[in-house]
Amino acid sequence: MPPRVKICGLKRPEDALTAARAGADYLGFVFFERSPRHLTMTDAVRLRDRLPHGPERVGVFVDPDFALLSAAVDALDLDWIQLHGDETPKFASLVRARFGLNVIKALPVATVADVADARRWYGHADALLFDAKPPATPDALPGGNAVSFPWELMKGQDIALPWFLAGGLTPDNVAEAIRASNAPALDISSGVESAPGEKSAEKIEAFLKAAKSPI
Ligand SMILES: O=C(O)c1ccccc1NCC(=O)[C@H](O)[C@H](O)COP(=O)(O)O
């Protein structure tokens, strides 16, 4: 079965449509002011009725409060909440209970010990997203940095939740990433952009083609 694919950091309806037509399973929307992919609530409300039906909608947040989550859930009719900060398992459980939505917890990975951290989230999250640790620079974002971790760290891991491989994926390296990691799902943002925050239709199509039919 081909991996499921999340195209993250969408801001324009035409990019969401391209992703859906090309076979994306999830569309990701970032609510983090410092990101070039940040969606204001006004833009989110405008986007809602212009989004394709089919792919599930994921809101991406960094240590959010419930007011932000509530506004974004309503604005985009979200299916999933992705927690991409320093949230605790208890907070993830509270989010699930409050909104009745699925939660993806992003985990920063550099070593195999970071992958083992997955266990802490069993019973609290519905899926995990293994992403590279952000670079140690003041302007680095918690995600969306176009940085990979060694994909082989995931091979043979017994992860008891659905999981995404993320970080530095591109149309050119995704076939190798799937081979090396056996990932059941993939997440990409920078690798389908022409500039930070600007999605490229050609790259979205190329990524989905390569991800859904690796050689
Ligand atoms: O993409 C962002 O700008 C972002 C900002 C703050 C927190 C999370 C963010 N992205 C989350 C994602 O799921 C990205 O798709 C993931 O980190 C992979 O990004 P990339 O390496 O650019 O493909």
Short description:
The protein is of the alpha/beta class.
Structure, described:
The chain is α/β, with parallel strands linked by helices and 215 residues long. It has one domain (4-212): Alpha-Beta Barrel (TIM Barrel), CATH 3.20.20. The chain has helices spanning 13-22, 41-48, 66-76, 89-99, 112-116, 174-181, 201-212, and strands at residues 4-7, 26-31, 56-61, 80-83, 102-109, 127-132, 163-165, 185-188, 193-195, 198-199. Helix 3 (66-76) links the parallel strand 3 and strand 4 (80-83). The radius of gyration is 16 Å and the shape is globular. The mean pLDDT is 97. Bound molecules: ligand LARABZUK. Ligand LARABZUK binds at residues 8-9, 28, 30, 32, 35, 37, 60, 62, 84, 131, 141-146, 166-169, 187-191.
CATH class: Alpha Beta
Task: Give the strand content.
Answer: 15-25%
Annotated CATH architecture = Alpha-Beta Barrel
What about the largest sheet?
8 strands, parallel, barrel
How many E strands?
10
Task: Please give the count of helices.
Answer: 7
Overall mean pLDDT score?
97
Query: Would you tell me which CATH topology applies?
Result: TIM Barrel
Strand order of the largest sheet: 1-2-3-4-5-6-7-8
Poorly predicted residue ranges? none
At the fourth level of CATH, the homologous superfamily is: Aldolase class I
Organism: Gimibacter soli
Domain N-(5'phosphoribosyl) anthranilate isomerase (PRAI): 5-209
Pathway: Amino-acid biosynthesis; L-tryptophan biosynthesis; L-tryptophan from chorismate: step 3/5
GO molecular function: phosphoribosylanthranilate isomerase activity
